[in-house]
Amino acid sequence: MAVYTKISDSELKSFLAAYDFGELLSSVGITEGVENSNYLLSTRRGRYILTIYEKRVQPNDLPFFLDLMKYLASRGVVCPVPVAGNDGRVLREIAGKPAAILTFLGGSAEPQPGAKWCGGLGKELAALHLAGQDFAGARPNNFSVTTWQKLLSRVEGRADEVKPGLVEDLQAEITELSVAWPVGLPQGIIHADLFPDNVLFVNGAISGLIDFYFACTDLFAYDLAICLNSWCFEPDGAFNATKARLMLSAYRRVRPFSRAELKALPLLCRGAALRFLLTRLYDWLNAPEGALVRPKDPLEYFHKLGFHRQVRGPGEYGLD
Question: Given CA atoms 256, 258, 261, 265 in this order, what sign does their dihedral have?
Fold first, then answer.
């Protein structure tokens, strides 16, 4: 979550006239995250999230995201639910941009979740994958292996400012992964961005999953690889195999994964690290002036990529 688009009191009042929320008590911009602009609204009826969709989210994808959240919630996944206005519409416009109101979930994120929480995450991720299997919608992964060359082309002119020789290194990685990327593994709806800041906790238990705006149809094991990257490294860059083992063990108790999926994990983890390295590079080099958000360090994922390159097999992720 972040705030790129600032809205006036009159714009917000006009927007909320379509809802039966009663008096608006307060509106606070939420500065965490990097994708969309978000405001926490407190009204007489309760609290809600106003999300304003920024440039990276394609307007044509919004019905998919909103329908998916509604569907997953109906299948027991605790996630925000889009709120329709008095006219039945969910998707609207404010400040010239698409926007929607979502239900508010209690809890807070854990920037550095402990090992026990990694087990909870594995369970919830598997439940999400199972819940989405009958969802009628589908959406390609716009940040998959087939797009990485294009992502690199957007930053290659300046990427060496971040680290000398980075472009050459990333080009070699893209070439290798493109040839070796696995096919035929189980797939379906994945979250594709389930970082710790997109998981809410209350009293040490997961209370909700948020930010489904990268959700797509892709390999389930790739979603696991994204979580291994984002949950299982310590602040000093060391990989925590205990966290990985708890996550993978909890996941497969809910949705057993195949030997082929487990074998592919090292390669998928490299791909996940590369994907976030490339998008962080772009954000780092193109941060909007005046935005209330701090771009995340792309080199964090360069170091994670280096770790995965040295992995000799899935056992190094804590599970044989």
Answer: positive
Does residue 62 sit in helix, strand or coil? helix
List, for residues 283-309, the tens digit of each pLDDT value: 899 876 655 566 789 999 999 999 999
Could you tell me the pTM of the whole model?
0.93
Beta bridge partners of 92: 99
CA 147 to chain CA centroid, Å, is 17
DSSP 132-170: GGG-S-----TTSGGGHHHHHHHHTTTHHHHSTTHHHHH
Residues with Cβ < 8 Å from 305, sequence gap 6 or more? 173, 270, 273, 274, 277
CATH of 9-103, one of 3.40.50.970, 3.40.50.1970, 3.30.200.20, 3.40.50.12780: 3.30.200.20
Q: What is the DSSP letter of 319?
A: -
